[in-house]
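Reminder to self: tokens first, then the designed residues, so the page reads top to bottom the way the pipeline ran.
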């Protein structure tokens, strides 16, 4: 593990006990959750439809990457059938799994493990089918912690269902969630959304360029 990633692991292990305790943390988490839910249709995933009997056998898979204590899982959990979380911090993973179980989800439905998809080589426990073929991979409030954003997009895109999988990152800058698909040509609406996103601040402009260019590379 690189020194950068190890520093993140230690920092988030230390933060895990208090991660969800302060009002501002709840506020940010709620903002991201609301934004994800509001843009659910725009994300273009064939979400589950609990009222449709024919839909019950379909597995809709979410990768909650850098899952922390599970904010993304809480936001999108009702729209999918299987969730796998990965986080560099084993203490965050422990909190995630406690929260998932206490919210009534089985381990088969939602479970997180400690790991780093950006390591070379990737650990064998992350290489099996359980951690492949996702309909959507979401990085909630985590992308800015990654050492090599282009590698991160490439590695995450490799975990998606071919042709249909979607990669999305959520952040709280200006209380919005920024999303981009890694596997599809942007629609007119996506282009408008990205244009709005680009004009918000110079930091965001540079990150958007990085994201678009890396997304193109990832296919
Ligand atoms: C600000 S927290 C966000 C947690 C959660 N997604 C949320 O929305 O509340 C960032 C998370 O990224 C994780 N992280 C940082 N670098 C990582 C890496 N290379 N691979 C996996 N997780 C990482 C940290 O351990 C931490 O749990």
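Designed residues (219 positions):
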């Amino acid at each position: 593990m690189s020194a950068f990633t190890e520093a993140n692991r230690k920092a988030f292990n230390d933060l895990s006990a208090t991660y969800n305790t302060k009002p501002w943390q709840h506020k940010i988490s709620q903002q991201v959750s609301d934004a994800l839910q509001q843009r659910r249709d725009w994300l273009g995933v064939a979400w589950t439809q609990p009222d449709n009997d024919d839909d019950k056998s379909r597995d809709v898979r979410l990768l909650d990457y850098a899952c922390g204590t599970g904010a993304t899982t809480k936001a999108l959990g009702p729209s999918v059938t299987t969730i796998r979380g990965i986080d560099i911090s084993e203490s965050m993973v422990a909190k995630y799994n406690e929260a998932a179980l206490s919210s009534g989800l089985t381990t088969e439905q939602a479970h997180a493990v400690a790991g780093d998809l950006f390591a070379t080589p990737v650990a064998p426990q992350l290489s099996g089918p359980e951690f492949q073929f996702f309909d959507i991979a979401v990085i909630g409030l985590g992308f800015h912690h990654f050492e090599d954003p282009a590698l991160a997009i490439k590695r995450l895109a490799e975990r998606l269902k071919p042709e249909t999988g979607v990669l999305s990152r959520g952040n709280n800058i200006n209380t919005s969630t920024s999303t981009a698909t890694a596997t599809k040509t942007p629609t007119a609406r996506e282009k408008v959304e990205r244009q709005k996103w680009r004009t918000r601040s110079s930091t965001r402009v540079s990150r958007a360029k990085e994201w678009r260019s890396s997304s193109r590379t990832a296919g």
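Confidence is low (pLDDT under 50) at residues 173-186, 193-206.
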